[in-house]
Amino acid sequence: MVKLTYLGEFGLIERLSRLCPCSNAVIKGIGDDTAVLRSPVKKQLLLTTDMLVENVHFTRKTKGFLIGRKALACNISDIAAMGGIPKSAVVSLGISGREDSRFVDEVYRGIGALAKEFKVDIVGGDTVKTHQLIINIALTGEASMRDIVYRSGAKVGDKIFVTGELGNSLKSGHHLTFTPRLAESQFLVKKYPPHSMIDISDGLIADLGHILKQSKVGACLYEDQIPLRKGARVADAFKDGEDFELLFTLPPDKASLLRRQKKFNMTEIGEIVPAAQGYFLMDDNGRKESLNTSTGYQHF
Ligand SMILES: [Mg+2]
Fold first, then answer.
1. CB neighbours (10 Å) of residue 41?
2. Which long-range contacts link 29-33 to residues 24+ away (Cβ below 8 Å)?
3. What pLDDT sits at residue 300?
4. What is the 245 CA–ligand 1 centroid distance (Å)?
5. Residue 287's domain spans which residues?
6. Strand partners, 137
7. 236 shares a domain with 135
8. For 46-90, what is each residue's pLDDT tens digit?
9. Separation of 274 CA from ligand 1 center, angstroms?
10. pTM to 2 decimals?
Protein backbone atom coordinates (compact mmCIF):
# COMPACT_ATOMS: atom_id res chain seq x y z
CA MET A 1 0.00 0.00 0.00
CA VAL A 2 1.50 3.34 -1.08
CA LYS A 3 0.52 6.21 1.20
CA LEU A 4 -0.04 9.42 -0.72
CA THR A 5 2.36 11.40 1.43
CA TYR A 6 5.20 9.54 -0.32
CA LEU A 7 3.66 9.71 -3.74
CA GLY A 8 3.47 13.48 -4.10
CA GLU A 9 1.80 15.58 -6.70
CA PHE A 10 3.90 14.37 -9.62
CA GLY A 11 3.12 10.75 -8.91
CA LEU A 12 -0.60 11.44 -8.84
CA ILE A 13 -0.72 13.38 -12.08
CA GLU A 14 1.45 10.73 -13.74
CA ARG A 15 -0.96 8.02 -12.61
CA LEU A 16 -3.84 10.01 -14.03
CA SER A 17 -2.19 10.39 -17.43
CA ARG A 18 -1.44 6.65 -17.55
CA LEU A 19 -5.07 5.84 -16.83
CA CYS A 20 -6.42 8.25 -19.43
CA PRO A 21 -4.75 8.22 -22.85
CA CYS A 22 -5.69 11.29 -24.91
CA SER A 23 -7.13 11.61 -28.42
CA ASN A 24 -5.42 13.49 -31.25
CA ALA A 25 -7.44 16.62 -30.36
CA VAL A 26 -4.80 17.07 -27.65
CA ILE A 27 -1.49 18.48 -28.90
CA LYS A 28 0.02 18.43 -25.39
CA GLY A 29 -1.73 16.88 -22.41
CA ILE A 30 -0.44 16.35 -18.87
CA GLY A 31 3.23 17.21 -18.36
CA ASP A 32 3.77 20.87 -19.27
CA ASP A 33 2.67 24.19 -17.76
CA THR A 34 -0.61 24.06 -19.64
CA ALA A 35 -2.34 21.68 -22.00
CA VAL A 36 -2.38 22.57 -25.70
CA LEU A 37 -5.67 21.76 -27.43
CA ARG A 38 -6.82 22.04 -31.02
CA SER A 39 -9.28 24.94 -31.38
CA PRO A 40 -12.76 23.95 -32.53
CA VAL A 41 -13.24 24.89 -36.19
CA LYS A 42 -16.49 26.78 -36.93
CA LYS A 43 -17.84 25.80 -33.52
CA GLN A 44 -18.31 27.52 -30.19
CA LEU A 45 -16.26 26.57 -27.15
CA LEU A 46 -18.23 25.70 -23.99
CA LEU A 47 -16.64 25.67 -20.53
CA THR A 48 -18.08 24.44 -17.23
CA THR A 49 -16.87 23.37 -13.80
CA ASP A 50 -18.29 21.41 -10.89
CA MET A 51 -16.93 20.71 -7.42
CA LEU A 52 -17.73 17.77 -5.13
CA VAL A 53 -16.92 18.05 -1.43
CA GLU A 54 -16.75 15.27 1.17
CA ASN A 55 -19.76 15.23 3.53
CA VAL A 56 -21.67 17.53 1.19
CA HIS A 57 -21.87 15.44 -1.99
CA PHE A 58 -20.48 12.11 -0.77
CA THR A 59 -19.03 10.51 2.37
CA ARG A 60 -15.91 8.45 3.10
CA LYS A 61 -18.11 5.39 2.69
CA THR A 62 -18.77 6.25 -0.98
CA LYS A 63 -16.61 4.18 -3.32
CA GLY A 64 -13.73 6.17 -4.86
CA PHE A 65 -14.70 4.93 -8.32
CA LEU A 66 -18.22 6.38 -7.96
CA ILE A 67 -16.94 9.70 -6.59
CA GLY A 68 -14.65 10.14 -9.60
CA ARG A 69 -17.31 9.01 -12.01
CA LYS A 70 -19.89 11.43 -10.59
CA ALA A 71 -17.48 14.36 -10.65
CA LEU A 72 -17.09 14.00 -14.41
CA ALA A 73 -20.71 12.96 -15.04
CA CYS A 74 -22.10 16.22 -13.53
CA ASN A 75 -19.94 18.23 -15.92
CA ILE A 76 -20.92 16.15 -18.96
CA SER A 77 -24.57 16.62 -17.96
CA ASP A 78 -24.09 20.41 -18.04
CA ILE A 79 -22.47 20.31 -21.51
CA ALA A 80 -25.36 18.09 -22.71
CA ALA A 81 -27.87 20.59 -21.27
CA MET A 82 -26.38 23.28 -23.56
CA GLY A 83 -26.59 21.05 -26.65
CA GLY A 84 -22.80 20.53 -26.77
CA ILE A 85 -20.34 17.63 -26.97
CA PRO A 86 -17.82 17.26 -24.11
CA LYS A 87 -14.13 17.44 -25.07
CA SER A 88 -11.31 18.06 -22.54
CA ALA A 89 -11.15 18.11 -18.75
CA VAL A 90 -8.76 19.15 -15.98
CA VAL A 91 -9.06 17.43 -12.61
CA SER A 92 -8.13 19.05 -9.29
CA LEU A 93 -8.04 16.97 -6.17
CA GLY A 94 -7.85 18.08 -2.55
CA ILE A 95 -6.65 15.20 -0.36
CA SER A 96 -5.35 14.89 3.19
CA GLY A 97 -2.40 12.75 2.13
CA ARG A 98 -3.40 10.05 4.60
CA GLU A 99 -5.56 8.23 2.07
CA ASP A 100 -4.62 4.84 0.77
CA SER A 101 -3.31 5.46 -2.74
CA ARG A 102 -5.66 2.74 -3.97
CA PHE A 103 -8.61 4.96 -3.00
CA VAL A 104 -7.23 7.81 -5.12
CA ASP A 105 -6.54 5.36 -7.95
CA GLU A 106 -10.18 4.32 -7.76
CA VAL A 107 -11.27 8.00 -8.01
CA TYR A 108 -9.15 8.35 -11.14
CA ARG A 109 -10.37 5.04 -12.49
CA GLY A 110 -13.95 6.29 -12.12
CA ILE A 111 -13.08 9.47 -14.00
CA GLY A 112 -11.17 7.47 -16.62
CA ALA A 113 -14.00 5.00 -17.23
CA LEU A 114 -16.54 7.74 -17.93
CA ALA A 115 -13.97 9.79 -19.89
CA LYS A 116 -13.44 6.81 -22.18
CA GLU A 117 -17.17 6.19 -22.58
CA PHE A 118 -17.84 9.85 -23.50
CA LYS A 119 -14.54 10.43 -25.40
CA VAL A 120 -13.35 13.11 -22.96
CA ASP A 121 -9.58 13.81 -22.80
CA ILE A 122 -8.10 14.39 -19.34
CA VAL A 123 -5.45 17.00 -20.10
CA GLY A 124 -4.23 18.23 -16.75
CA GLY A 125 -4.77 18.54 -13.05
CA ASP A 126 -3.57 19.69 -9.68
CA THR A 127 -3.45 18.22 -6.19
CA VAL A 128 -3.63 20.16 -2.94
CA LYS A 129 -3.46 19.06 0.69
CA THR A 130 -6.85 19.62 2.36
CA HIS A 131 -8.79 18.34 5.38
CA GLN A 132 -11.82 17.16 3.45
CA LEU A 133 -11.63 15.31 0.18
CA ILE A 134 -12.47 17.73 -2.65
CA ILE A 135 -12.69 16.96 -6.33
CA ASN A 136 -13.12 19.68 -8.90
CA ILE A 137 -13.34 19.09 -12.64
CA ALA A 138 -13.47 21.72 -15.37
CA LEU A 139 -14.67 20.51 -18.76
CA THR A 140 -14.71 22.06 -22.21
CA GLY A 141 -17.26 21.23 -24.87
CA GLU A 142 -18.07 22.17 -28.44
CA ALA A 143 -21.30 23.11 -30.16
CA SER A 144 -22.42 24.70 -33.40
CA MET A 145 -24.04 28.06 -32.72
CA ARG A 146 -27.36 26.72 -34.03
CA ASP A 147 -27.29 23.74 -31.63
CA ILE A 148 -26.75 25.73 -28.43
CA VAL A 149 -29.83 25.75 -26.18
CA TYR A 150 -30.20 28.37 -23.44
CA ARG A 151 -32.49 28.51 -20.42
CA SER A 152 -33.91 31.77 -21.73
CA GLY A 153 -35.66 30.58 -24.92
CA ALA A 154 -38.97 29.12 -23.62
CA LYS A 155 -42.07 30.54 -25.39
CA VAL A 156 -45.74 30.61 -24.34
CA GLY A 157 -47.42 27.50 -25.79
CA ASP A 158 -44.24 25.35 -25.59
CA LYS A 159 -44.70 21.85 -24.21
CA ILE A 160 -42.43 20.87 -21.31
CA PHE A 161 -40.64 17.51 -21.46
CA VAL A 162 -38.27 15.60 -19.22
CA THR A 163 -36.01 12.60 -19.92
CA GLY A 164 -36.00 9.51 -17.69
CA GLU A 165 -37.54 9.52 -14.21
CA LEU A 166 -37.37 11.90 -11.27
CA GLY A 167 -37.08 11.73 -7.46
CA ASN A 168 -35.36 9.48 -4.94
CA SER A 169 -31.99 9.93 -6.67
CA LEU A 170 -29.93 10.20 -3.48
CA LYS A 171 -31.46 7.28 -1.57
CA SER A 172 -31.54 5.01 -4.63
CA GLY A 173 -27.90 5.76 -5.51
CA HIS A 174 -28.89 7.06 -8.97
CA HIS A 175 -26.90 10.26 -8.30
CA LEU A 176 -23.68 8.19 -8.30
CA THR A 177 -24.38 5.94 -11.27
CA PHE A 178 -26.42 8.04 -13.71
CA THR A 179 -25.54 8.23 -17.38
CA PRO A 180 -25.36 11.86 -18.57
CA ARG A 181 -28.05 12.45 -21.22
CA LEU A 182 -25.67 13.29 -24.05
CA ALA A 183 -27.28 10.96 -26.62
CA GLU A 184 -30.71 12.41 -25.83
CA SER A 185 -29.37 15.96 -26.07
CA GLN A 186 -27.78 15.34 -29.49
CA PHE A 187 -30.95 13.62 -30.72
CA LEU A 188 -32.95 16.68 -29.65
CA VAL A 189 -30.70 19.42 -31.04
CA LYS A 190 -30.39 17.66 -34.40
CA LYS A 191 -34.03 16.55 -34.84
CA TYR A 192 -36.30 18.45 -32.45
CA PRO A 193 -34.38 21.58 -31.37
CA PRO A 194 -35.70 22.69 -27.97
CA HIS A 195 -36.46 26.36 -27.28
CA SER A 196 -34.92 26.01 -23.81
CA MET A 197 -33.11 23.31 -21.83
CA ILE A 198 -31.51 22.65 -18.41
CA ASP A 199 -30.31 19.56 -16.53
CA ILE A 200 -32.10 18.79 -13.28
CA SER A 201 -29.70 19.13 -10.36
CA ASP A 202 -31.78 21.09 -7.81
CA GLY A 203 -35.14 19.37 -8.37
CA LEU A 204 -37.83 19.86 -11.00
CA ILE A 205 -39.47 22.90 -9.39
CA ALA A 206 -36.27 24.90 -8.88
CA ASP A 207 -34.74 24.00 -12.25
CA LEU A 208 -37.91 24.68 -14.25
CA GLY A 209 -38.02 27.88 -12.18
CA HIS A 210 -34.65 28.86 -13.72
CA ILE A 211 -36.09 28.44 -17.23
CA LEU A 212 -39.23 30.44 -16.32
CA LYS A 213 -37.28 33.29 -14.75
CA GLN A 214 -34.82 33.60 -17.61
CA SER A 215 -37.51 33.19 -20.28
CA LYS A 216 -39.98 35.52 -18.44
CA VAL A 217 -42.84 33.02 -18.70
CA GLY A 218 -44.99 30.86 -16.40
CA ALA A 219 -45.77 27.13 -16.46
CA CYS A 220 -48.47 24.58 -15.77
CA LEU A 221 -47.24 21.12 -14.69
CA TYR A 222 -49.51 18.05 -15.01
CA GLU A 223 -49.32 16.24 -11.66
CA ASP A 224 -50.26 12.80 -13.00
CA GLN A 225 -47.72 12.95 -15.85
CA ILE A 226 -44.51 13.39 -13.80
CA PRO A 227 -42.39 10.24 -14.36
CA LEU A 228 -41.32 8.92 -10.94
CA ARG A 229 -38.31 6.78 -10.06
CA LYS A 230 -39.09 3.69 -7.99
CA GLY A 231 -39.88 4.73 -4.42
CA ALA A 232 -40.42 8.41 -5.31
CA ARG A 233 -43.52 10.56 -4.75
CA VAL A 234 -44.32 13.70 -6.75
CA ALA A 235 -42.96 15.80 -3.87
CA ASP A 236 -39.60 13.97 -4.19
CA ALA A 237 -39.48 14.64 -7.93
CA PHE A 238 -40.08 18.29 -7.15
CA LYS A 239 -37.46 18.74 -4.47
CA ASP A 240 -34.88 15.93 -4.21
CA GLY A 241 -32.67 17.04 -7.11
CA GLU A 242 -29.52 15.30 -8.42
CA ASP A 243 -31.61 13.56 -11.11
CA PHE A 244 -29.37 14.82 -13.94
CA GLU A 245 -32.21 14.41 -16.42
CA LEU A 246 -32.82 16.94 -19.20
CA LEU A 247 -35.74 19.33 -18.83
CA PHE A 248 -36.64 21.12 -22.06
CA THR A 249 -39.41 22.96 -23.89
CA LEU A 250 -40.54 22.57 -27.51
CA PRO A 251 -43.07 24.33 -29.73
CA PRO A 252 -46.36 22.36 -30.06
CA ASP A 253 -45.74 21.12 -33.65
CA LYS A 254 -42.32 19.66 -32.74
CA ALA A 255 -43.75 18.30 -29.48
CA SER A 256 -46.40 16.27 -31.30
CA LEU A 257 -43.66 14.69 -33.44
CA LEU A 258 -41.45 14.02 -30.41
CA ARG A 259 -44.34 12.26 -28.61
CA ARG A 260 -44.27 9.56 -31.31
CA GLN A 261 -40.56 8.76 -31.07
CA LYS A 262 -39.68 5.52 -29.32
CA LYS A 263 -35.89 5.81 -29.16
CA PHE A 264 -35.61 7.56 -25.80
CA ASN A 265 -37.69 7.79 -22.66
CA MET A 266 -39.07 11.36 -22.77
CA THR A 267 -42.28 12.47 -21.06
CA GLU A 268 -44.47 15.52 -21.61
CA ILE A 269 -45.14 17.01 -18.19
CA GLY A 270 -46.61 20.44 -18.78
CA GLU A 271 -46.93 23.62 -20.78
CA ILE A 272 -45.44 27.11 -20.83
CA VAL A 273 -48.04 29.81 -20.06
CA PRO A 274 -47.86 33.62 -19.88
CA ALA A 275 -45.95 34.92 -16.84
CA ALA A 276 -49.14 36.55 -15.55
CA GLN A 277 -50.72 33.10 -15.05
CA GLY A 278 -47.85 32.10 -12.74
CA TYR A 279 -46.26 28.75 -11.97
CA PHE A 280 -48.70 26.02 -10.98
CA LEU A 281 -49.49 22.33 -10.75
CA MET A 282 -52.73 20.88 -12.13
CA ASP A 283 -54.19 17.53 -11.02
CA ASP A 284 -56.32 15.29 -13.25
CA ASN A 285 -59.51 17.02 -12.00
CA GLY A 286 -58.19 20.38 -13.20
CA ARG A 287 -57.53 21.60 -9.64
CA LYS A 288 -54.58 23.98 -9.42
CA GLU A 289 -51.90 24.50 -6.78
CA SER A 290 -49.38 27.29 -7.04
CA LEU A 291 -45.71 26.32 -7.10
CA ASN A 292 -42.93 28.17 -5.39
CA THR A 293 -39.32 27.84 -6.47
CA SER A 294 -37.90 28.13 -2.95
CA THR A 295 -40.10 25.63 -1.12
CA GLY A 296 -40.89 23.21 -3.93
CA TYR A 297 -44.65 23.59 -3.75
CA GLN A 298 -47.30 25.29 -1.61
CA HIS A 299 -51.02 24.80 -1.29
CA PHE A 300 -53.24 27.82 -1.87
MG1 LIG B 1 -26.81 22.42 -14.94
1. 6
2. 29/121, 29/122, 29/123, 29/124, 30/122, 30/123, 30/124, 30/125
3. 43
4. 10
5. 149-297
6. 50, 91
7. no
8. 999 999 999 888 888 899 999 999 999 999 999 999 999 999 999
9. 24
10. 0.94
